[in-house]
Amino acid sequence: MSEQVAKHGKSLIQNSKRNRQLSEEENWLVHEQVCYALLDTGDIDEAKEIVEKLSLRFPKSLRVFLLQGALCECCEDYGKAQEVYERILQENEAHQGAMKRQCCVAKAQGDTEKAIGMLKKYLDVFMTDVEAWEELASLYLSMQMTKQAAFCYEEAILIQPQNPTNHLKYADLLYVLSNASTLHLLHQAIGYYSVVLDLTNGTSVHAKYGVLSCCDAIKSQGRGASAKLTEDEEKLLSKVSRELTTSYEERSPQLAVHLKATGITTTT
Amino acid sequence: MLMLDPNVRNWVMIPITFAMLLIGVLRHLVSKLMRGSSTPKIKTIQAKQLIQRSQYLRAHSGFLNRAAFNQRKEFFCEKEKGAFLQKVDPSLNPQQAMMSDPSMLSDMLTKNLTMIVPQFVTGAWVNFFFSGFVVAKVPFPLTQKFKLMLQRGVDLSSLDVTYISSLSWYFLNLFGMQGLLQLIMGEKTFDDTQVMQQQMSMGAGPAGGLDAPNLFKAEKDQLEMMQHTYRVDKFVELAAK
Questions:
Q1: Neighbours of A261 (CB within 10 A)
Q2: Where this protein primarily resides, as one coarse class (chain B) (predicted)?
Q3: Which range of residues forms the domain containing residue A201?
Q4: pLDDT tens track of chain A, all 268 residues?
Q5: In B, residues 162-191, which contact A (CB 8 Å cutoff)?
Q6: What is the ipTM of this complex?
Q7: Do B232 and A188 contact (CB within 8 A), yes or no?
Q8: DSSP state of B9
Q9: Residue A268 lies in a domain
Q10: Minimal Cα distance from A189: which residue of B?
């Protein structure tokens, strides 16, 4: 995406004839977008030119400051980027972009704990920002803090229950968090995998594997009555393993052998 | 049939229209100048987001297990530490904010000044110089009720409703200029009717402001009343089919 924006946007900005067809306002908006795209694709020199042009035109704009900060980040000049963001926040204490970028600076510097702290501070105010919750979850995961990550995914699910990715990750975490004494987590995980299957019309292979693993874990870890699956779970298990086997056999028979070898699918 | 003098058109109708247009442009520019950059306060945003988060929680609680739901409910409603029971920043309470923050009052004053003063002046101007003219005729028949709207300033019971008096023409221009101005200026101009509506509702509640204490209380009550049901289990049955 960014590559295309960068390529076509560059030609639009440089071609003064087509450029003139845009209204002035739109022209500067294009400049901003193309600049971000160029930073994405790593064309730092060209991005620098555009930032300078924008700084000349809008010397006091916070949006341009944000771009300058992003430029500094791309040049790995984190100290200066931090300075720029702090200046933005001084002017507008609730500037979402600058707060988020600050977390990214900390993350890029390898200081995960600081990044987490910053992101927590950000989420304390902007607590309905799904992407921030997801980012915090992945930061926690990189620190092996599974429980905290699970909390973040719960929050993401609350805000966007229609997005299967969050359910999927949450279910994975429940599976990870479970042990022999907390088998109910596995039952919950199966529930969330079912939600994913429902939302993706049963196409998610990840969720199918999840169901299989959970059922397997319940059977192997539980003792006596607790090792039993409920009726619905039994049904789901046989359905999912049937579907997985047939789809493997259809698409790549070589891998189907491996699937059978794991013993995870119940052949009925 | 009434014969309208072309001089009335040239010296009454066109000048009124032209003046209204110019004043519209002027007002737009002035209000653009006077409009300070208002950056939202972090506390306001936080309060709004708190409310929204609790709304999300209520709407989608079925996707959470009991423990996770209770944890969040506690976060919002716990007796001492609950987010909805904290002392609310006085600036979030509209009545108190009005007292403590004079900038809000002056803000309102400038807004009103740019709006009322030109209206007042032009109204007086039209009333003084152009009252009593019949300036135009609408090409379609109308019911008697329109007399009040179209023939202000001309009290002739025998005059047909379709004739428009100069004062009414002024009012039509005042409220109908919005679209034309937008075309000319190429950007969104302020909307008189919107401002009017805002003023009307001013008595009932704060315009645009956030009444945090009351909203918090309502949200807390609803959260506490809520019955939590865990719905994820049902999906197993659904997926197994």
A1: 8
A2: membrane
A3: 162-268
A4: 788 888 888 888 777 777 777 777 788 888 888 888 988 888 888 888 888 888 888 888 888 999 999 988 888 889 899 999 999 988 888 888 899 999 999 999 989 999 999 999 999 999 999 999 999 999 999 999 999 999 999 999 999 999 999 999 999 999 999 988 888 899 999 999 999 999 999 899 999 999 999 998 998 888 887 888 888 998 999 999 889 888 888 888 888 888 777 777 765 4
A5: 186
A6: 0.82
A7: yes
A8: I
A9: yes
A10: B232
Residue contact A232–B57, C-beta within 8 A: no
Tell me the shortest Cα–Cα distance from A50 to chain B, in angstroms: 26
Q: How many distinct structural domains can be found in chain A? A: 1
**A188: in domain:** yes
| Residue A217 maps to a domain | yes
Q: Within a domain: residue A199?
A: yes
Cα–Cα distance, B109 to A83 (Å, whole number): 38
Contacts of A178 in chain B (CB under 8 A): none
Instruction: Write the secondary structure of B114-171 as one string of H (helix), E (strand) and C (coil).
Output: HHHHHHHHHHHHHHHHHCCCEEEECCCCCCHHHHHHHCCCCCCCCCCCCEEEHHHHHH
Query: pTM for the full model?
Result: 0.74
B41 touches chain A (CB under 8 A): yes
Q: Could B240 and A239 be called an inter-chain contact, meaning their C-beta atoms sit closer than 8 Å?
A: yes
Burial of B157-181, coded b for 16+ CB within 10 Å and e otherwise, reads eeeebbbbbbbbbbbbbbeebbeeb
- Is A52 touching B (CB cutoff 8 A)? no
